[in-house]
């Protein structure tokens, strides 16, 4: 019998989680996915709780998935975006969060452009904080849904070879996946141009490659990341067209992959840049499965953190 | 005016080749070694060290610190003179601003305020500030700290022009083209945290620029707040070739690394940023072998609310007057059996020499200007009990070895922690 417990009220990142805690979330997500095949059917686990989505950076998937997840657990959900908050009037994040706490939030899901902003909030207020992306630091719920999807498709993560391709330097998704996947026993290769995939990532337990063909050859899955051209100045690579020429994944190059290797992408996709349209819609791509799994995984996160409950499991 | 008798202290003043245990008196504000029989306050300072008053080469005098609170905090740290950087409001780029500051200082300062004027107008790096008029108004150096003229021609002309007035130029070496988005050291720690943008290179490129210019036009250049191992090596090699370059670092770059920012605490956010252990070790070695001439505090007060924000949005800067001497002593005493000569040189003698300020020393007839330091006293520094009104420091709560027990400046006792 394996008994695992969940004691955290906040989820700030995967770097600090143990294998047992990651497994706890993934198991809980599997249960929700099974229990709630029909999104119309609600459970009442968070009935009477107020979940505030504080999204200070643009988001489609993550915000909607957290909203649906919270509503599926019967929580009341309030969403605040950057433009509609008093931050545009010069209020600090600290003050906004203290006000949201005073207004009776039971948990705050926060997305913010500053690395460390979730940790900062968790130290400032008592309400559970769920990190929905903090700068280039972490995006734990995304990595957990990626790991959940990988597990569904590959059976296990242990010993699997996962290649993350694209803009790693500015990517919180890459960092969270790197922590999570390596903890779960997968081998992670970070691939892309040298300016976006510095060698120093090796100190975090990854293999670094600037050779697309080689990095795809023995991968069980490849995770593509969007080129965040709005974040970079033009110095990191010559142009999007050059990126596509050197590192874009297309039908032809997908033959470099093992026949059963799958393709993930956290979205939003830039069709014709990091992945060509046909490949994104092919059977290799599990991109929409990721989106769907995102609901169950976020239900698990909200459920565990908002209750800071004990999660036990009988093997 | 109170007269004092200080008995039993070891006097260390390397500029005057003085290192001995001797009683002395402060009578009418002046030092005398001849017995004084008048009424005195007797300070038994046996076992303690008397060194020349410290002088700080990099002080930022922002709110919430006022001139009087800054001078009280500096005195509590053993400082008797501080060089105010030109990033005051309004910027110190015209004689009026210098005289205004001078006037304020004369009313509220218990220690010597020295002023550093801007090298370029508004420190914007576009056109030279009126360096001659600034000198006439009283500045003792010019600098664009915490900026650096990005245009090398402006910098070069500024150096040539300033040399005409024998005006020291302090360069804060930062190439913005490779560090414009910098909030932290670019290294493994920052990569993990998703922050960075301020690589060693940003400093080293401009240290090399200063060295190259100095070699070509034979002017002195002082580079401020050295933080990287590569800079130390460049300066060491330049000095070996006789190039006229001097340098300082800070107590935090001597003792801390970027591990300190792992919790995203803005109170550990500094400019330049804290770097890696290899840098810290090189800075220590640079102090020990004389490559780095001085240690300055980079005292930079911030309002508490300014630091209670996201790490990347918070202003850089930490306060340092009250902890500098103890931190430096604690660190150097691990490597030098008797570090006081080196401390007196790096924190008093050489900064004075770089600024060309007159110094009488701890000598007969000199105005009392010294610090009394107790190397055996361990103490806990907290911002609660601190003298500075600002609280932005990574050293809050640290227990440190060695403590300032008294400071005399301009003939008067300006700080005392001696239990009578």
Summarize the structure.
With 315 residues, chain A is of the alpha/beta class. In chain A, 37% of the residues lie in helices and 14% in strands.
Strand and helix layout:
The complex is a heterodimer of chains A (315) and B (420).
Chain A: H1 19-35, E1 50-55, H2 61-72, E2 76-81, H3 93-102, E3 107-112, H4 117-124, E4 129-134, H5 140-154, E5 161-165, H6 172-183, E6 187-191, E7 207-209, H7 212-217, E8 221-224, H8 240-247, H9 251-254, E9 262-264, H10 277-280, H11 287-307
Parallel strand pairs in A: 1-2, 1-3, 3-4, 5-6, 5-8, 6-7, 8-9
Helix pairs in contact in A: 1-5, 1-11, 2-11, 5-6, 5-11
Chain B: E1 4-7, E2 10-13, E3 18-21, E4 24-27, E5 30-32, E6 41-44, E7 49-52, E8 54-59, H1 67-76, E9 79-84, H2 95-108, E10 112-118, H3 131-137, E11 141-143, H4 152-164, E12 169-171, E13 184-185, H5 188-193, E14 197-198, H6 200-217, E15 221-223, H7 229-240, E16 245-249, H8 251-255, H9 277-288, E17 294-295, H10 304-307, H11 321-332, H12 340-355, E18 370-380, E19 399-409, E20 412-416
Parallel strand pairs in B: 1-6, 2-7, 8-9, 9-10, 10-11, 11-12, 12-15, 13-14, 15-16, 16-17
Antiparallel strand pairs in B: 1-4, 2-3, 4-5, 7-18, 18-19, 19-20
Helix pairs in contact in B: 2-3, 6-7, 7-9
Supply the key terms.
heterodimer, A: 315 residues, alpha/beta, Rossmann fold, 2 domains, five-stranded parallel sheet, four-stranded parallel sheet, disordered C terminus, B: 420 residues, Urease, subunit C, domain 1, TIM Barrel, eight-stranded parallel sheet, 12 helices, 31% helix, 22% strand, globular
Describe the structure.
- The complex is a heterodimer of chains A (315) and B (420).
- Chain A has 315 residues and is of the alpha/beta class.
- Chain A has two domains: 19-139 and 294-307, Aspartate/ornithine carbamoyltransferase (Rossmann fold, 3-Layer(aba) Sandwich); 141-291, Aspartate/ornithine carbamoyltransferase (Rossmann fold), CATH 3.40.50.1370.
- Helices cover 37% and strands 14% of the residues of chain A.
- Chain A has a five-stranded parallel sheet with strand order 7-6-5-8-9. Chain A has a four-stranded parallel sheet with strand order 2-1-3-4, sandwiched between helices.
- In chain A, helix 2 (61-72) crosses helix 11 (287-307).
- Residues 309-315 of chain A have low confidence and may be disordered.
- Chain B has 420 residues and is an alpha/beta fold.
- Chain B folds into two domains: 4-48 and 364-416, Roll (Urease, subunit C, domain 1); 53-355, Metal-dependent hydrolases (TIM Barrel, Alpha-Beta Barrel).
- Chain B has twelve helices and 20 strands.
- In chain B, helix 2 packs parallel to helix 3 and helix 6 packs parallel to helix 7 (229-240).
- Classes of the chains: A alpha/beta (315), B alpha/beta (420).
- The A-B interface holds A 15, 92-94, 112, 114-117, 119-120, 124, 134-138, 172, 175, 198, 200-201, 203-204 and B 187-188, 191-195, 263-264, 305, 308-313.
